[in-house]
Amino acid sequence: MAAIEMRNIVKEYGDGFKAVNDISLDIADGEFMILVGPSGCGKSTLLRMIVGLEDITSGDMVIGGDRVNEKAPRDRNLSMVFQNYALYPHLTVFENIAFPLRLNKKVSEDEIRRRVKEAADMLELNEHLERKPANLSGGQRQRVAMGRAIVRQVNAFLFDEPLSNLDAKLRGQMRTEISRMQRRLGTTTVYVTHDQTEAMTLGDRVAVLRRGFLQQVASPRELYEQPVNMFVAGFIGSPPMNFLPAVVAGQRLQLPFLEVDLPAKAAGKVTDGQLLIAGMRPDHFEDARLLDPAKRERGALFRAKVDVTEWLGDSQYAYIPFEANEEVTRQLAELAAELDSEALRTQLIISIDAMSRLRENQEAEFWADTSRMHLFDPRTGENLTRDEDAAADLAHLEEEELRERTTR
Amino acid sequence: MKVSRRTQVYWIVGAILIIAYAIIPVLWIVSLSFKEGDDITNKSFLPTTWSWENYRTVFASDLFTTALRNSVGMALIATTISVILATLAAYAISRLDFPGKRLVLGVALAITVFPVIAIATPLFNLWRTIGLYDTWLGLIIPYLSYSLPLAVYVLAAFFREIPWEMEQAAQVDGATSWQAFRRVIVPLATPGVFTAAILTFFAVWNDFVFGITLTSSEAARPVPAALAFFQGASQFSQPTAPIAAAAVVVTIPVVILVLLFQRKIVAGLTNGAVKG
């Protein structure tokens, strides 16, 4: 086990394109770090640079205190689970898992058998040991790939979108399995994904990347509650954060449907009449009729016409279209394109109580928790209302939790 | 989709015609090889009486047995060397990026279309001067130069099919490049290696031009060339029937090879390696 430090890592291709741009990231010993971002953000390239399958253009990659830039993959003592598993089709499951051990002449046959057995026990692969990968299901192949990774004592595990080839149900199960395995073995883990559910649930910390640049590294909770910019805010959370045009009018802020006081954090950073973008998460809204009276104080009420509702049993979403000026629409479309989605129309997605019997195409009263609203500068995307103290608290909590787990 | 009866009939008729076209000459040679003495003039497809006489003649003749030994020996040596070299070369071509890669492939292709007869005469003169004329080595070298490009081409196609991740996984697991090649890539390319080996073996086994121009005695003459010098039991009759018998004998190893390795040639060994 070891900590991984990256200092000013750059990956530049022959044509001058920088896939990874000046990334510095410290991954603590035993930590579960997620690299997340839309496709083409450089997350897989970064992972491949850690493992040594991709050359590092400049910067230092330090694993367990040793600079490994020039070391071959086999000398870095890491193990990796590939997106397509990369099992050896000519070998049985047993031999697939034993492969890394067999390459080391010092490991005896008994030792190999014992360790493969141990890994197979953990992953419940015992009855499949003599089968070939071709005869296994997707989930079983995935487990074999994990078995091959955990059979050795390595400095770190690297996962490259390991669950993206599984169906939704299996993905959920394997996610829990990976989390449990990592907690049990306590090995430093770097996990690449574009799925934000995996990012939120698995990681101690999440590094959000965009076009080769590191946007924010923080615990999932901090990313969700105190994003540094509009990109992170829009990427984390499903359904995504709502972005609304907001115009500063003296000490007030005008939004579609409602008007609120200008948040204290933003005061001094904005000028009168300036156009901002307000970010509000779907779960910061509620159907006013079902609202907990204790909450009413924190927010504002407004009336709006619901276009479509989606009832999912445990939750319910309502869609409220609104008109936005051209500049905001263009901004939102650009952001959506970058997040691999498409902004078809400007609309508010709000999460309301599943009990609500709201009807489509009818006007109703809603409540918005404006105290948790964030304001973004539309040009730079910077978050004007990020609460550094709250963010530091969350970071501190996360650190404590990790320390507790790794020293136990 | 339901195929109409009419199309079905056309297909069957077409298939029968093609099979007949291919197999009748073979059957004819087999039938000839069983005809005794003057029976070849019996004006019927089948022999009047089936006889092993021609086979006895063939195997009694030193000319044939030494030629058979030469053919088997040289074909095996040329195939082995060619496949080993081609495996390494094809791996380099499919995996490494080096200057002149396209040129290598282009030249390889050019060699396979180069007319063999054009270099037969120069080689004849060259070999006589440096003493390779009428030796095994003298034949194996030109065999290699023709079979190697073919084998490289076949194998390069196979290597390209093997996912890169296989090898990267092996490297991360702690394998050196050589270990990754030997323990992962080569086993996966087995069907390709067998295909290349069989193609090479056939090419060498069936060679006539080099066999006849670069040999003068039984020291290195392969079977196809030796058949041209075949005399049979009597000097006064055309040895058609014994030649037919010899032809059948040299065809048998080829048929056995194909039957043996047919299953090995079946592609799709990489099934289950990666989720497709």
TrEMBL record, chain A:
By its UniProt entry, which Pfam families does this protein fall under? ABC_tran (PF00005), OB_MalK (PF17912)
Keyword ATP-binding found? yes
Instruction: Decide whether keyword Ligase is in the record.
Output: no
Residue span(s) of domain ABC transporter: 4-236
Q: Which GO terms describe its molecular function?
A: ATP binding
Alphabetically sorted, this entry's keywords are: ATP-binding, Cell membrane, Membrane, Nucleotide-binding, Translocase, Transport
Which NCBIfam families does its entry note? PRK11650.1
State the name under which the record lists this protein.
Sn-glycerol-3-phosphate ABC transporter ATP-binding protein UgpC
Q: Which gene encodes it?
A: ugpC
UniProtKB/TrEMBL annotation, chain B:
Query: Which compartments is it annotated to reside in?
Result: Cell membrane
Q: What is its main location?
A: membrane
**By its UniProt entry, which CDD domains does this protein fall under?**
TM_PBP2
- This protein's UniProt keywords: Cell membrane, Membrane, Transmembrane, Transmembrane helix, Transport
The residues covered by the ABC transmembrane type-1 domain are 68-261
Q: Which parts of the chain span the membrane according to its record? A: 9-30, 72-91, 103-124, 136-159, 180-205, 243-261
Q: How does it sit in the membrane?
A: Multi-pass membrane protein
**InterPro entries per UniProt:** BP-dep_ABC_trans_perm, MetI-like, MetI-like_sf
Q: Which PANTHER family match?
A: INNER MEMBRANE ABC TRANSPORTER PERMEASE PROTEIN YCJP (PTHR32243:SF18), MALTOSE TRANSPORT SYSTEM PERMEASE-RELATED (PTHR32243)
What family does the entry list?
Answer: Belongs to the binding-protein-dependent transport system permease family.
What's the protein here called?
Answer: Carbohydrate ABC transporter permease
* Species: Paractinoplanes pyxinae
